[in-house]
Every structure is written in C-alpha cells, then in structure tokens.
Amino acid sequence: MSWSEPHSPTLAPKYFESWYAWAIRSRSSLIKQVAWMFRKYSRNILTYLKHQITNAVSEGLNSAIQTIKKMACGFRNREHFKIATYPH
Fold first, then answer.
1. What's the pLDDT score for residue 80?
2. Rounded mean pLDDT of the chain?
3. One domain for residues 21 and 40
4. DSSP code of 10?
5. Which domain holds residue 42?
6. Helix, strand or coil for residue 25?
C-alpha cells in the first residue's frame, strides 16, 4: 500500500485492520493501548475520512460565548445575554 491509500475512505478499513493486527501482536503495552483506543473510535475515524466534517467551528463559537459569560459575571436576563453575544 502506498502512503496515500490509508486516507481513502474505501481502503482505510482494510489498512486499519492490518495495522490493528500488527499492533495487538506487539510486545509493547503502550502500542496495544493505542490500538484498543483506535478500535474503540474506529467508526468515528472512518466517518471523518468519508465526510471530512468536524465540530471545530461550533466548539470555537461555544468557547467565545462562554468567555462572554465569564466576563459579564452573569446576566440579569436572557435578552441582555443575547445582546452581548450577537456582536461577537
């Protein structure tokens, strides 16, 4: 397999299975732990390869809103909170 093939949504599952088989046979317990973690999240990883969409934008927006809340030390009502968040 070439280096670009594991990034293909159709070939990635086969590549992952061959890597996982090697990792589980490894003598290193750290590599085995990583392999088990990847196995646990393999479905999400393969979905990302297919769609290439993350929640980074929504996490960034949420972080900005939380910062506004902390700076204001609370709001008296929801309307004041909305007014403070819209410009940001």
1. 75
2. 82
3. yes
4. T
5. 5-51
6. helix
